[in-house]
């Protein structure tokens, strides 16, 4: 994988920044352990080295794991125990997890090692840095984590690559054996010592990494939702009076205020809006999908803000079991339970489904002659001969229906494992996987709305748009043609979705009206 981000992410004993997680996961930023981190790792390892020769039972060092924790392991077998743990726990199955997710979870596990709280050796921690810096990405599968005792199987597949086993994708994306990839990069396999196998797999890194990536995407998507809503409000000859600052401040939710401010900026100086601000306008108020856009989008913004707070706390955590405390004790704990992350992953999926749902309703309104305020049926060039955007709305509706299913919480479910030792689990990994799909679905629903609204605005000619919405419409037109007879729509939807992901439309709007929230 070519490195496209040259600033090195330096890991010390403090939390890694969410922006650095994105940079390493998506842009290939290199990573390095600071001297402070190396010192902390050395001190933590000294504690484990003392326990490694102790006859007293210490979980993960001289005992088995899970329901096998009562089995005493003699000193001569304690290193073997760690490699066996990694091999047996690398039991994932199903579709492969995206490269960016694997890189994020590896970085987060390395960040935890850098605290010194896991008891790994410095070469083991450096091994993860080397894998990241050489673009070696272990093959991780969709199924295998219950979100408790950490993301066990996903992390075990990463640890398996570290010891030179299993399969990886190299920097060029070729699927090869891990041992071959290490040799090609000039790296040696790590032979795990006491406790290291456990330390490499016992964290919430997979679900946290996916939460951070989703929040990064939602920052842009929620602004894009405001852009789409503004275009629809304008195209449907709705009023912007309901977005007034004094009305919004009567219900002081910060996300609602941000969304309404965006709508005001985007709709300012619109000739289309001005055309129906006349005494003979009989419309008292608009449908909820138009009038309440800031309330729905704002609630999603506030939900994302709460999720970001949880993510920041988790980034500051040292998660392992047992964990080495700052005063040198080795203690069992339950901090690996994924409930805090699992809850907000589910909460975000609900918000995403609702934002997509209101967007689809605005899209449908522009296509219905009974509600579109004079626009042609389905925005077709010759309705009946042409179907216009009829089936684009079907696509949006189908996605929204799927998003509602994805909004069913994973964290409300639990299946016991490990012979009832691990009898309550978070299912946070499942929540993370469905949130990724939901974010992609929202992107496509907004693409359909923006594509439809751009066509509707063109059909309002000779009335002119606001500078903000017009700039977005013009950016769409750089990729997609204007109104006319029916044509192949799928590539046009995909083109606008790519523009949303690339930030092209948000940049166009901000260039015209100034920064948006």
What key attributes describe this structure?
single chain; 517 residues; mainly alpha; Fumarase C, Chain B, domain 1; Fumarase C, Chain A, domain 2; 2 domains; three-stranded antiparallel beta sheet; two-stranded parallel ribbon; 9 strands; 5% strand
Structure description:
This protein is mainly α and 517 residues long. The protein contains 20 helices and nine strands. The protein has helices at residues 18-27, 35-52, 78-89, 99-113, 122-133, 152-162, 178-184, 196-201, 205-235, 245-248, 254-267, 271-275, 288-291, 293-315, 339-367, 390-406, 428-459, 467-477, 490-502, 504-513, and strands spanning 9-11, 31-33, 93-96, 137-138, 141-143, 167-169, 175-177, 323-324, 330-331. It has a three-stranded antiparallel sheet with strand order 4-6-7. A two-stranded parallel ribbon has the order 1-2. Strand 8 (323-324) and strand 9 (330-331) form a beta hairpin. Helix 9 runs parallel beside helix 17 (428-459) and helix 14 (293-315) packs antiparallel against helix 15. The chain is elongated and about 90 Å long. Keywords: Histidine metabolism, Lyase. Its main location: cytoplasm. InterPro entries: Aromatic_Lyase, Fumarase/histidase_N, HutH, L-Aspartase-like, Phe/His_NH3-lyase_AS.
Please outline what is shown here.
The chain is mainly alpha-helical and 517 residues long. It has helices at 18-27, 35-52, 78-89, 99-113, 122-133, 152-162, 178-184, 196-201, 205-235, 245-248, 254-267, 271-275, 288-291, 293-315, 339-367, 390-406, 428-459, 467-477, 490-502, 504-513; strands at 9-11, 31-33, 93-96, 137-138, 141-143, 167-169, 175-177, 323-324, 330-331. It has two domains: 9-203, Fumarase/aspartase (N-terminal domain) (Fumarase C, Chain B, domain 1, Orthogonal Bundle), CATH 1.10.275; 210-513, Up-down Bundle (Fumarase C, Chain A, domain 2), CATH 1.20.200.10.
């Amino acid at each position: 994988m070519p490195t496209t981000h040259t600033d090195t992410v330096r890991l010390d004993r403090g939390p890694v920044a969410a922006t650095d997680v994105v940079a390493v996961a998506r842009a290939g930023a290199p990573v390095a352990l600071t001297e402070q981190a190396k010192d902390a790792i050395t001190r933590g390892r000294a504690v484990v080295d003392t326990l490694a020769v102790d006859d007293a039972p210490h979980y993960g060092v001289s005992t088995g794991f899970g329901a096998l924790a009562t089995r005493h392991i003699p000193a001569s077998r304690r290193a073997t125990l760690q490699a066996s743990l990694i091999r047996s726990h690398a039991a994932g199955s199903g579709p492969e997890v995206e490269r960016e997710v694997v890189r994020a979870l590896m970085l987060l596990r390395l960040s935890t090692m850098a605290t010194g709280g896991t008891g790994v050796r410095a070469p083991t921690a450096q091994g993860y840095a080397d894998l990241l810096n050489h673009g070696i990405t272990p093959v991780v599968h969709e199924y295998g984590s219950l979100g408790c005792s950490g993301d066990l199987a996903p992390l075990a597949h990463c640890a398996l690559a570290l010891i030179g086993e299993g399969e990886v994708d190299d920097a060029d994306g070729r699927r090869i054996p891990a041992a071959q990839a290490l040799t090609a990069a000039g790296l040696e396999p790590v032979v795990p010592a006491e406790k290291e196998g456990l330390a490499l797999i016992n964290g919430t890194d997979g679900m946290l990494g996916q939460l951070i990536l989703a929040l990064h995407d939602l920052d842009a998507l929620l602004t894009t939702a405001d852009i789409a809503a503004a275009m629809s409000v304008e195209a449907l000859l709705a009023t912007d009076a309901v977005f007034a600052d004094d009305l919004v401040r009567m219900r002081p939710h910060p996300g609602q205020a941000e969304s309404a401010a965006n709508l005001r900026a985007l709709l300012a100086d619109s000739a289309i809006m001005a055309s129906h601000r006349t005494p003979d306008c009989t419309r008292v108020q608009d449908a909820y999908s138009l009038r309440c856009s800031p309330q729905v989008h704002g609630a999603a913004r506030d939900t994302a803000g709460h999720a970001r707070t949880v993510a920041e706390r988790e980034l500051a955590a040292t998660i392992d079991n047992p964990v080495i405390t700052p005063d040198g004790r080795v203690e069992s704990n339950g901090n690996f339970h994924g409930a805090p992350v699992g809850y907000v992953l589910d909460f975000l999926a609900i918000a995403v489904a609702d934002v997509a749902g209101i967007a689809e309703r605005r899209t449908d309104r522009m296509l219905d002659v009974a509600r579109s305020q004079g626009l042609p049926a389905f925005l077709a060039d010759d309705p009946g001969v042409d179907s216009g955007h009829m089936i684009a709305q079907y696509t949006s509706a189908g996605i929204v229906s799927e998003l509602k299913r994805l909004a069913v919480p994973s964290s409300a479910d639990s299946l016991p494992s490990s012979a009832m030792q691990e009898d309550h689990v978070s299912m946070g990994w499942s929540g993370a996987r469905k949130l990724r799909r939901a974010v992609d679905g929202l992107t496509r629903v907004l693409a359909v709305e923006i594509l439809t609204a751009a066509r509707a605005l063109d059909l309002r000619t000779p009335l002119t748009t606001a500078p903000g919405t017009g700039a977005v419409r013009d950016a769409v037109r750089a990729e997609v043609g204007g109104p006319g007879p029916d044509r192949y729509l799928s590539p046009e939807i995909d083109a606008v979705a790519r523009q949303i992901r690339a930030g092209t439309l948000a940049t166009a709007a901000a260039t015209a009206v100034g920064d948006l929230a």
